[in-house]
Amino acid sequence: MVQRGPCPQVLANGACSDPTCRHEHNVPNCDACQLVFKIPNEYRAHLKSKKHQNKVQGLAEAMSTVLYCAICQIYVQGMASWTSHIRGGKHTTKARIQGLAPTIEPEVPEEVPNHEFCVVCQIHILNRFLARHRDSHRHKMRAQFLTFRSVIEEAEKDKNGVSVKGDFDFGIIDPSATGNGITMRATIARNDPSSRINLVQFQLASSQGKRTYSPFTVSGFGQSQAAVSVPYTSSPSLPFNITMSTRYFGRYEDRLELVFEDVRLRTRFLITRTLLVIVGNKADHELLRPKAPYQPRKRVARQPELQVVEGEPAPTLKSIPYVNTLPKAPISQNLAKILATGSPKEIVERLQTLFLPRVFASETYSKHFKTLLWTEESQMERDLEHYDIHQAKLSRHNQYHYLEVPGLAEKRPSVLVGDTILVQRNGSREGHWFGGFVHFVRKEEVGLRFHSSFVQNPNDRFLVRFKLNRYPVRRQHQALDSAFSQDRVLFPAPEHLHPAAIPRSTSLRVYNGTIASNPRQLQAVTSISRSPAGAVPFVIFGPPGTGKTVTMVESIRQILAMNPRARVLACAPSNSAADLIALRLIDLGADVLFRAYAPSRHKEQVPLELLPFTYRNPDGHFSVPSVFSRMRHFRVIVTTCISSVIVSGIGIPRGHYSHIFVDEAGQATEPEVMVAIKNMADNNTNLVLCGDPKQLGPIIRSTVAQKLGLELSFIERLMKREIYDEVQGYGKSVVKLTKNYRSHNAILKFPNERFYGGDLEPCADPKIANLYTNSTHVVSNGFPIVFYSISGKDDREASSPSFFNIDEVTAVKSIVAKLRSDRRIRITDNDIGVIAPYHAQVLKLRTAFRSFADSVKVGSVEEFQGQERKVIIVSTVRSSREFVEYDLRHTLGFVANPRRFNVAVTRAQSLLVIVGDPSVLSLDPLWRSFLNYVHTGGGWSGPEPTWDTEEPVDEAGGYDVKYRDAAQQDMNAFSRMMEALTLNGVAEEGEGDNVNVDRPWAEVE
């Protein structure tokens, strides 16, 4: 600790002679980093450190967006603070006094006290941060780019009596029309007949780069080399041709640089023209272009919900005869306030300090996850604001009011029977709402029932607000509050392992014959079926296509056969995954197997084969048999993780099920999995988790909850523990399946080596795996992976932040059309899957396919997890290369997520096609490695890579920095060329070092 009072040992240079001295020194402290220094040299070194500079730049950026509140007459720093401000009591009170609505739009002031406006970055900067801001890398890059743009604009001007005329934008050209090239005629015109000007050099900017592809060529000057002399003084114009020729989809841009010499003035000058072309489908561009320019959605204060008149609940809410009370589990006001203010980093720090237990253990397990659940719920509530509907219409038929919901078919928002939707008539008093319960959901509309006091006129318009269905969250809180908290389940350690040897599979008679020839599957089934009661959770680690669900189903059959008293509760995060389990067990019969559905599930959403294994009440809603003993009689119950609450909720006692299985466990949050475990497990219950922690985890909306661990699934957390080592724990606690029955070896090879240590063995059916190896759909025979290199343009529209790329839509559409028209290899639409990481691209692709391939499944990576298709096409979408604004984390973070990548490239059985911009994708080390693999394998189609694919990939990354540096060098080179041509004259022929020796000196007076 620094002692009070001046230091008696300070030397003349201001430094202290004693490095252990604790006295105060006359050295300024760093306010930005909140550090105290004793020695000036240390302070000066700190100022130069990268950590300090990043901190200062971050503070400057954070303070840069200054808004003005006209009601309170104060300045507010940033949109986040603005949102908090207009929700505050002081602002609301002042607005009421002034007779104004508190939800005013912020003003952007021209002048701000103690700030200066940076015209380069278009932001206000605090005076004390101004010098640092101007010295920041971002400011310098923006300034340089503005300079470059001005140089380009100057170069594009006609000058010195010379003009370059012609149409240099080829527009949208169909690739079928580009075979022999398309030529545009252009002209160099001399406007001053007395001038003597020559064209001395012409070139394309792309010719100066390395490995740069350009479809343009220039001809008509008699020579195709630069540094030519083409006089045209005898003619007022000089025509020339620009030819565009390429068979590749995408957008191409180049710059034609024409250097002229004024013979009389002995000066040179430059005129440039930008050449543009889009190779694609004009109809697609018309159909799919942005409906409106992208405008980020402004978050404003919402009207409060002071009084809500509840409607008539849907009958489904009473379909299950629950015997226990579901807790409300409301979020505390203190926690809500913390979650509503500050950056994610600040909120994380506050939660760790004030709410989360310091030690994560069985005793603190419930408190830890309940806090994370509330954090996630808070974010989900905020995200629902995006779907508010203004000026909505309601129509009425009998007792129902019908509301059309845009995006309902896409589950954006997701609305279930039993949910509540609030409506407020235009002109109603603030805070007064009617709550309508959802009674049915159709493709684009919902049916609501309101309170009898709700009256609607045909011309009424409403503000519609969607409310989060809290039942799933409350069910998780209920489970977390249960008394079950065994370490052998939640925190298994070596001492919890049973001392018996690993069960051997020599005498096991399997139901599925393929398992008998797969030693690892057989070992997993044996270990699970013969584990003693109360064992540690067993993990079936199943990489893509290795048959993890088959292994789980076989294990269930063996357990039922070996132990007549055994009962199984089998769960999965989604209904589709749970249906798959049930479909593979239907031969057990309806007396043994029961498929439990939530009452909100509609009959049409259930496979016909499973309907005999369900129960519906007289109203037609899914429920449970009225005879309680019958539910206890079923030996296998299959349901989702959340709906597993049904068995505990109707009174089935803890420990009734000897085994609890969770399939696709990596896709569920830990509290989701605990709904079954903490409600139904006892000291003897065995737990089996089946999944792949290398694939996509649960979907978490809150950045804060992600950082605090809610995105880490239960199976992944266990796999990090000592006893789940794949070698040491083999057969005791874990078995990793290694035989891949899905993909061709070339498709499997890269993800196998990248994510699974090369352990996977290709065992796919050759008839399927080799379907396309020697077809016209691949570039290189025997290598069924194709990367279509395309430089497109990613776009956004209206207020949606999701990206789409019309150029890639056209390319994918062409690929699908070619696949479907192949008469040698016959496949159906159901054999083709198209994956896009952005929802907007999914919608554009579906629109494009509507006329000719409506049955081809198009979806996100999440929608394809657990699925497979003979052909998978991946549209990567991103193609933004503005190097000044470039931010790799934001531009590629979603596309380059390793798990997302792993899922996307492991769905294909016979043919994998990737459509993307290599110059963007290659900035990420994972994608660069994959692109190198495809290029080396001969699967590349389109313009060649701009880097050496044989060069080892630097896993540390930094390729975006190199990209920006290269772009900066290009700008500098062009700017220097312009400067040289503008300032310097042209030497006469023969001039050199000695040319002035015989020249007389001018007379000097």
UniProtKB/TrEMBL annotation:
Its main location: cytoplasm. It comes from the Eukaryota. One of its GO terms (cellular component) is cytoplasmic ribonucleoprotein granule. One of its GO terms (biological process) is regulatory ncRNA-mediated gene silencing. It catalyses: ATP + H2O = ADP + phosphate + H(+). It is found in: Cytoplasm, Cytoplasmic ribonucleoprotein granule. One of its GO terms (molecular function) is RNA binding. It holds the Pfam family AAA_12. Gene3D superfamilies: Classic Zinc Finger (3.30.160.60), P-loop containing nucleotide triphosphate hydrolases (3.40.50.300). Its EC number is 3.6.4.13. Residues 30-52 form the C2H2-type domain. InterPro entries: DNA2/NAM7-like_C (IPR041679), DNA2/NAM7_AAA_11 (IPR041677), Matrin/U1-like-C_Znf_C2H2 (IPR003604), MOV-10-like_beta-barrel (IPR049080), MOV-10/SDE3_DEXXQ/H-box (IPR026122), P-loop_NTPase (IPR027417), SF1_C_Upf1 (IPR047187), Znf_C2H2_jaz (IPR022755). Keywords: ATP-binding, Cytoplasm, Helicase, Hydrolase, Metal-binding, Nucleotide-binding, RNA-binding, RNA-mediated gene silencing, Zinc, Zinc-finger. Belongs to the DNA2/NAM7 helicase family. SDE3 subfamily. This is RNA helicase. The lineage of its organism: Eukaryota, Fungi, Dikarya, Basidiomycota, Agaricomycotina.
